[in-house]
Amino acid sequence: MPDTNDTETTESNDPPTAAPASPSSNVSRGEMSDAQPARQKNAASEEGEDTVPQQNSSTHMPLPSTTPSTQVYSKEARVYHARHAALIEDHDNQRHHQCEQGCLALLLEPRVPHYTRIQVLQLLATVVAPSRAGGYLSEAQEMLDLMDGDQVGVQLLKDDNRRMLADLDRWRAENGLDVDLEGTMEDQSEEDSGEDREATAS
């Protein structure tokens, strides 16, 4: 008759057979999501796809982390984008005065992203008198000239600005204002000075 204690000892030393995992197991959702990439990596290693030796994770190049300052800036940028979107809605609904005041207020913010600031300048140019619009479009053009012209976003903004400046030049030509106003004032000032000198000489 076999010793009962020996049988129990032998059975206790055998590793228990793991039951197949099921969605109702005690593994938390976080652990389950971490286990899936590990299984995929082990399968790739067995198939010979992952031939790079395992390295200590501390020697890997760290991924760029989001610092609190960039998080704050990102939140501010989203707020500015939302304000710009509201101004576009004012413009589309013919609330031009409200749109103008909102644009001027937004331009006073020191941390407005460059893209948003340029778009606000262009929007403001559509609700003010053409004599003022040129200044806003010129400011937008100066900012665009300092930005990377290879970026698609910059190219699109430049195209918009060029078209708006062309429309403004066309309006000036149609209204007889195609001459440089500053140059005209300087020429008029020189003519007045010449007439004064002639009057003094006579």
From TrEMBL:
Compositional bias ranges of the Acidic residues kind: 1-11, 177-195
Sequence ranges of Low complexity compositional bias: 12-25
Biased composition range(s): Polar residues: 52-70
Region (Disordered): 1-70, 176-202
Domain of life, source organism: Eukaryota
Protein name: Uncharacterized protein
Organism field: Zymoseptoria brevis
